[in-house]
């Protein structure tokens, strides 16, 4: 097993089989000690968040499999906080696909003069480049195609699946009395060039409320999985 990357929230290893092993850590994105799934840097560590992230990711990836949504998921080991996945080619240097249901976080900070905080956004989809030095800048369809990051067909598919997958997650949360405010997803391509959902689906990349109260990422598995 060869370590190939140490990411913000996971360490990445290459297995002899050619598959990839993700080791979940207790780090989450944010700023000044405050969690923010839209942030581009590790802001704090929450003990147990790696275990929580993996358990939620396994639950949702297995749900997506039942619904015929392709993902890179192969298997997982909760005790070791690891997940085996298929290798994937990311879009460009990495592309974040965000679905927003409320005007909060980085969206509100950008557009605060145009929108009331917490306004309903009805599943607005945005894309940002994974570029810490540039602050994960927004990118639109024309730029994505012009720069060769994604084809027109791939852009349409990414937009469609970001909304559809987010709606599935939103519906699961709603059944538990929870509201999804926003979520960040990632996609890649397998060896045959087929698009699939990659990375994770956990409290670390979504913002969830119960009524007017923000739900901590570490608390989500207990509310969703039990």
Automatic annotation (TrEMBL):
Pathway this chain belongs to: Purine metabolism; IMP biosynthesis via de novo pathway; 5-amino-1-(5-phospho-D-ribosyl)imidazole-4-carboxamide from 5-amino-1-(5-phospho-D-ribosyl)imidazole-4-carboxylate: step 1/2
Keyword Ligase part of the UniProt annotation: yes
InterPro entries: SAICAR_synt/ADE2_N, SAICAR_synthetase
Pfam families the record matches: SAICAR_synt
Enzyme class: ligase
Enzyme Commission numbers on file: 6.3.2.6
Known catalytic reactions: 5-amino-1-(5-phospho-D-ribosyl)imidazole-4-carboxylate + L-aspartate + ATP = (2S)-2-[5-amino-1-(5-phospho-beta-D-ribosyl)imidazole-4-carboxamido]succinate + ADP + phosphate + 2 H(+)
Top-rank taxon: Bacteria
Gene3D superfamilies: ATP-grasp fold, B domain (3.30.470.20), Phosphorylase Kinase, domain 1 (3.30.200.20)
Domain SAICAR synthetase/ADE2 N-terminal span(s) in chain numbering: 4-214
UniProt KW keywords: ATP-binding, Ligase, Nucleotide-binding, Purine biosynthesis
PANTHER family, per database record: MULTIFUNCTIONAL PROTEIN ADE2 (PTHR43599), SI:DKEY-6E2.2 (PTHR43599:SF3)
Protein name: phosphoribosylaminoimidazolesuccinocarboxamide synthase
Native organism: Peptococcus simiae
């Amino acid at each position: 097993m060869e370590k190939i990357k140490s990411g913000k929230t996971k360490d990445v290893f290459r297995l002899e089989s050619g598959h990839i092993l993700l080791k979940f850590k207790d780090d989450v994105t944010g700023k000044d000690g405050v969690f923010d799934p839209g942030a581009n840097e590790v802001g704090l560590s929450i003990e147990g968040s790696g275990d929580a992230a993996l358990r939620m990711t396994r639950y949702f990836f297995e749900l997506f499999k039942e619904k015929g949504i392709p993902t890179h998921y192969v298997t997982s080991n909760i005790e070791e906080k690891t997940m085996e996945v298929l290798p994937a080619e990311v879009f460009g240097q990495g592309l974040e696909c965000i679905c927003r249901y409320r005007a909060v976080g980085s969206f509100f900070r950008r557009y605060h003069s145009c929108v009331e905080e917490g306004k309903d956004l009805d599943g607005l989809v945005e894309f940002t480049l994974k570029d810490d030095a540039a602050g994960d800048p927004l990118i639109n369809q024309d730029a994505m195609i012009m720069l060769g990051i994604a084809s027109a067909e791939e852009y349409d598919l990414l937009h469609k699946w970001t909304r559809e997958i987010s709606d599935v997650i939103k519906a699961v949360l709603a059944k538990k009395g929870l509201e999804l405010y926003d979520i960040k997803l990632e996609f890649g391509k397998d060896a045959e060039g087929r698009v699939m959902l990659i990375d994770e689906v956990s409290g670390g990349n979504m913002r969830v409320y119960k009524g007017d109260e923000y739900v901590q990422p570490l608390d989500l598995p207990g509310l969703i999985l039990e």
